Amino acid sequence: MKINKNIIKTLGLTSVLFAASSCSLTDFGDMNVTPNAIATPVTSALLTNSLIAMDGPATTGGLLGSLYCQYISETQYTESSNYSTQQVAWDGIYAGMLYDLQNIINQNSNAATAVYASNNGSNKNQIAIARIIKAYTFLTMTDRWGDIPMSEALQEKINPKYDSQQEVYTALFKELKEAAAQFDGGVAVKGDILFAGDATKWKKFANSLRLVMALRISKIDPTTGKAQFIDALSGGVIDANADNAAITYPGGTFKNPWFSLYDGRKDYALSSQFATILSDNQDARLQTAAAPNGKGQIAPMPYGLTRDVATSATYADFSFVLAPALRAATSQSFILTAAHAYLARAEAAQLGWTSENVKDMYSKGIEMSWKQWGVFDQTKFNTFMTSANIDLASNAMTKIQTQRYVAFFPDGNMGWAEWRRTGVPALKPSVNATNSSKQIPRRYAYGTNESTINGVNYKAAAAKLTGGDTQDSRVWWDK
Fold this sequence. Notes:
single chain, mainly alpha, Serine Threonine Protein Phosphatase 5, Tetratricopeptide repeat, 2 domains, two-stranded antiparallel sheet, two-stranded parallel sheet, 4% strand, globular, disordered N terminus, TPR-like_helical_dom_sf, signal, SusD-like_2, SusD-like starch-binding protein associating with outer membrane
């Protein structure tokens, strides 16, 4: 997999520089004003654009995570699977969806533009949704890089500081709770292709995301994790597949990212490691996790092969990731679901954070996942739940955490984060690893632009990492 190490957006040199220009556009009078352009942004269009980009980390930006947690294997260019250093730039995230979301907030907060913006829905509702999506985006970023610019980002600061990951988590817990409480029952928001302006579903999404975050800090700060989990659960979470956060792509210009990934290319296959977890347990989800090969068989690819071996005739007929119907141009991509919420509740109950029934939450989570993927059969499900590797009679926590890892497939951001936190499943690093530690990477290294564009703050952040700015250093919660 090839990562562009110097992403330069038309919108600006880097995300931080773009969001922190040293001069105002008004300094140049009207010389840069296009008379045929819309002077005030259409917030509904900004929202749709941001939501389309919301699934990007699960495919393009998150492919590294999918490789590191061994959901998928590379079939041609195997450098990333073997842990060559990837200095991944975040420029496009700041200069793209985060800028658009901040613009939505600004337009709806400014008295001079709020009336016009309200044509696209209640001002407060638009702000609440933008805040929630921003929080989700910052979460996926901090879990990949660790310390990141957040509190001073998007505020016209040339050199924004890097907030510690602990500070980011604290701020995001607060942001999600406040945003969920901000909905005012006003006009539904336009441009919302996730929940069609349904405030109740947005609140459930925000609270469900807090469940995931709370468990993510369960080792480093269990007291805060428990308090946040209980508070979020009391506010209502996703408890039915009808409320799942899933982007349905219209096709045309906006195609499902997995469709685009295979449009003329075949660089990725279902990983043998992930396929084995499903096949060993006769898990019906295997039929949706991959497409049959030319012989009509599920043929996963071993993980971490050298390029010569991966491109040999032995592995020429492999299974693409996801069944064809699930990666069509107009297919859905799941962001956060009832399965994720129920399985989080199972782990929290097992930890003693809640008095909910562990077995019930666990069973319901797997049932929701099977139904989400369209493979539910009651008889097969009953057999599955009573099998030795699934039943909670022994090693309950490991089994719950394994099912959380399975349920997040194919979202590499979430799957990799859960594996780093729990060590479940017991993944083995590639035997052909090229990094110095020969171990699975624990974070993204910062992009090459950061040391020059925001050098002082970059150096301060890198100095806090044990071992420096490397893939082997660990983020705050990874203990």
